[in-house]
Amino acid sequence: MENFDREIEDFLKRYEVNANVGRAEETVEQFADVFMMADPGGVRAVPSSALLVAIPQRKRLFESLGSSITTLASVEQTRLDDRYALLKTQWLVQVDRGSGRKEEVILRSTFVVHQSDDGLKVVFYLSHEDFMSVLRARGLLLSDTA
Questions:
Q1: Higher pLDDT, 42 or 95
Q2: Which class for 75: exposed (0-12), middle (13-18), buried (19 or more C-beta within 10 A)?
Q3: β-strand pairing of 119-127 with 31-39
Q4: pLDDT at position 1, please?
Q5: How far are the Cα atoms of 54, 58, 132 from residue 146, in angstroms, in the given order?
């Protein structure tokens, strides 16, 4: 699979664009029909239909925070074999609460992607931080909000 690295680069660019625009259907297409999701609270199998519902909610949350853009800040790629890769990523979320000064929040996530006949698909997603807790700790979200 000589174009695997290029395919991963294209995959992450599409993921970044989809996340910023809130394209739920396009984002869901980047995930397996059922994938494993892990965060500080544990691990669970997630059907893509649940992701389709969660993406617009996430977009509304980001907009309420004044988030202007989420940018891929770094990626560390480890090929696991000819069809799987582990991608350790850092995402920069810029939050502007109206003060004119943007605050930056770094979120770390790890993906395991599988090269299928339909392109790359996320089969495992790990969010290293509880995003809501990070926002509360930074004073960007009230304790009783979502």
A1: 42
A2: middle
A3: parallel
A4: 44
A5: 13, 11, 8
Tokens in use for 112?
Answer: 């395991």
CA distance 27 to 31: 7
Q: Are strands 103-116 and 84-95 parallel, antiparallel or unpaired?
A: antiparallel
Q: What is the DSSP string of 9-56?
A: HHHHHHHHHHHHHT-HHHHHTTEEEEEEEEETTEEEEEEHHHHHHHHH
Q: Within 13 A of 143's CA, how many CA atoms are on the CB side?
A: 0
DSSP string, 46-83: EEHHHHHHHHHHHHHHHHHHTEEEEEEEEEEEEE-SSS
Per-residue pLDDT tens over the stretch 29-62: 999 999 999 999 999 999 999 999 988 888 888 7
- Which is it for strands 42-47 and 67-79: parallel, antiparallel or unpaired? unpaired
86 is written with which tokens?
Answer: 């582990």
